[in-house]
Design brief:
The structure holds two protein chains of two kinds. Chain A is an alpha+beta fold. Chain A has helices at about 1-25, 25-30, 50-65, 70-80, 85-95, 100, 190-200, 220-235, 285-295; strands at about 115, 125-135, 140-145, 155-160, 240-255, 260-275, 285, 295-300, 300-315, 320-325, 330-335. By secondary structure, chain B is of the alpha+beta class. Helix content of chain B is about 30%, strand content about 30%. Classes of the chains: A alpha+beta, B alpha+beta.
């Protein structure tokens, strides 16, 4: 009899314990499927590819829309979608009336393809995208940058790829590519800013300074040498041409490549200085120089300046090489 | 003492079962067959209203946030990485969802920060965004968790923010809870008030009855029944277990007995 009572008491106690267990100590949370929110993965790209593509397409559309507008209105419109070197080049192109030819990087209306994004959740952030102009089969690279959390992206760099050039593998979709300080040469053959200096020296005219770590075996440098040589030949001994490239890397952007190298986007300013010989009476200028200098003929030394947005690949071993470049004649000066 | 303890435990079980059944029925009614839980806040503010992952991403089901502007107002709603949302909001004044209350289906909120927020819609860190003059929905897919939702009135105020979670399992669990509660209630009642011995012709023999008859062992006597005082209380008896009609030596009863009659 007492055993039956004990059994009944035990059953009641067990039932009560079950009730308390269900209601207590967070077991209820588990029953209804509540769990802590997962932690944020902060080492991946900040945007999905679809979102980045929308941003890139919008910027390219707006940049094209304001590309040819001159004056303050045009500069204001361009400043909303462009920044850094791309803004410098676009403003110069608009003022020279060369927007159609000088900003060909922005001309293709094809939808952009996002190649990668900067890794992590910090700022600045960058999107590297490409467009293909099917008419000329020319591919362009565009770097869009957002400097602060509340600042929209702007196109900071835009440059045409050279025929046959390749951009090495760069961060996979979700992991992205870390941004690299252009003065950071860690694990590279040289720092990106040094690479720009070395490349600029290597393509100088008439006295290039070759560098074993820098390749000038690209169509851009070959075109520079060819045109400078032809120009000097045309001048005969009536004038001399000196061509110098000066890197302007204040707004340069660089991404880490998958193999540890870096692809850097920056600007070089090329100055072509013409010095007439004493026996030269005058020099007759081509139209584009005459427009910049305001004279068709000159007797004194003069210089014309071109903007050269370029992209260099700086490897961890091997040679620095150029993969993208374009040029735009922007100003002239008599001395 | 054990008897009292048993009854107390039984009462507790019965009460717990009753409570569980009531809660189960209430939840099943509120959630409906689709298991939809809707929590609403009425911030009525021009400041950003922020729903963090500890509100949005604690379940595996899809969560829908609906923001409604005040009459004639315009609203903007966006989805972002939590760290991005924090970065762009900074220490700006905002109304932040802190949790939910199922008692009144309220999305609990609290005001935080100071100063005006930056131009949120100009920033380009949103995974998704929308704006309009009507109520806008933003769906939070748990595959992309954690995420933060921000609603901001571009004109007027954010009248209401509603968070809806649909999980059919919750309805099933509510029904199960109701059934378990009813079961516990029944168990508790049985423990508190055990079954009393039945009365009438088909009732089993009462304890303490000794019957004799022709088939009984020993010399035959007159077919009479002899009543003995009961040694136990009725509540402690378990008549069917005590009596085995097939047991040898049992004989027919000469008279029906009730416990009451048998008890002195």
């Amino acid at each position: 009899m007492s055993r039956r009572i004990t059994r009944r008491s035990g059953a009641a106690a067990a039932a009560l314990a079950a009730v308390l267990a269900v209601g207590g100590c967070g077991l209820g949370d588990s029953l209804v499927g509540l769990h802590p929110a997962p932690p944020e993965e902060t080492s991946s790209v900040p945007l999905d590819t679809e979102g980045a593509t929308v941003i890139a397409a919008r910027l390219l559309d707006e940049a094209r829309a304001s590309a040819t507008t001159k004056g303050e209105k045009g500069e204001k419109a361009r400043a909303e979608v462009l920044s850094g070197d791309a803004l410098t080049v676009a403003n110069a192109a608009a003022e020279q009336g060369a927007a159609d030819s000088g900003s060909e990087e922005l001309a293709p209306s094809a939808a952009p393809t996002v190649i990668t994004m900067s890794r992590g959740r910090g700022w600045p952030r960058a999107i590297l995208a490409t467009t293909l102009d099917e008419a000329t089969n020319t591919q362009s690279l565009h770097v869009m940058v957002s400097e602060t959390p509340d600042a929209p992206f702007t196109i900071a760099e835009s440059v045409q790829m050279l025929g046959g050039a390749e951009l090495p593998a760069i961060g996979a979709d979700r992991s992205g590519a870390p941004l690299v300080d252009i003065t950071d040469g860690d694990a590279l053959v040289m720092a990106p800013d040094e690479a720009y200096d070395a490349y600029a020296a290597a393509v100088a005219f008439p006295k290039p300074e070759p560098n074993d770590a820098v390749s000038t075996d690209d169509s851009f440098s070959q075109a520079l040498v060819t045109s400078a040589t032809a120009q000097q030949k045309a001048l005969k001994k009536l004038a001399t041409l000196r061509q110098k490239h000066r890197p302007d890397l204040e707004d340069a952007v660089a991404f880490r490549l998958a193999d540890g190298g870096v692809v850097a986007f920056g600007l070089m300013r090329r100055t072509d200085t013409f010095t007439p010989a004493k026996k030269a009476k005058e020099l007759t200028l081509p139209k584009e120089y005459a427009d910049l200098l305001g004279k068709k003929k000159v007797t004194d030394r003069f210089a014309v300046t071109s903007l050269e947005p370029v992209a260099l690949v700086v490897p961890s071993e091997g040679e620095v090489r150029l993969i993208a470049a374009s040029e735009l004649l922007v100003s002239g000066k008599r001395s | 003492m054990v008897h009292v303890l048993t009854r107390v435990l039984g009462a507790l079980v019965a009460l717990s079962g009753l409570a569980l059944a009531a809660v189960g029925v209430w939840f099943a009614t509120e959630l409906g067959g689709s298991g939809t839980a809707t929590f609403t806040a009425r911030p009525g503010t021009a400041d950003p209203v922020v729903l963090q992952p500890d509100v949005l991403n604690r379940v595996d089901a899809q969560v829908t946030v609906t923001a409604t502007p005040s009459s004639g107002g315009r609203i903007w709603i966006a989805l972002a990485n939590p760290s991005d949302a924090e970065a762009v909001l900074g220490d700006a004044r905002r109304v932040e969802a802190t949790g939910v209350s199922v008692q009144d289906w309220v999305l609990r909120t609290a005001s935080q920060g100071s100063g005006d927020a930056a131009d949120l819609s100009a920033a380009e860190l949103w995974r998704n965004q929308d704006d309009g003059t009507e109520a806008l929905e933003m769906t939070v897919d748990q595959a992309n968790a954690p995420e933060t939702v921000i609603a901001l009135a571009e004109e007027g105020t954010v009248e209401t923010v509603t968070m809806t979670v649909e999980n059919k399992t919750w309805f099933v669990e509510a029904v199960i809870a109701a059934l378990v509660g009813l079961f516990l209630l029944a168990v508790g009642l049985v423990v508190v008030w055990p079954r009393r011995r039945r009365t009438g012709a088909d009732a089993g023999p009462a304890a303490g009855v000794t019957a004799t008859g022709a088939d009984a062992a020993g010399p035959p006597t007159d077919e009479t029944a002899e009543l003995e005082p009961m040694a136990t209380t009725p509540a402690e008896e378990d008549a069917p277990a005590e009596h085995d009609p097939a047991a040898p030596g049992d004989t027919e009863q000469t008279e029906p007995h009730t416990t009451k009659e048998a008890t002195p």
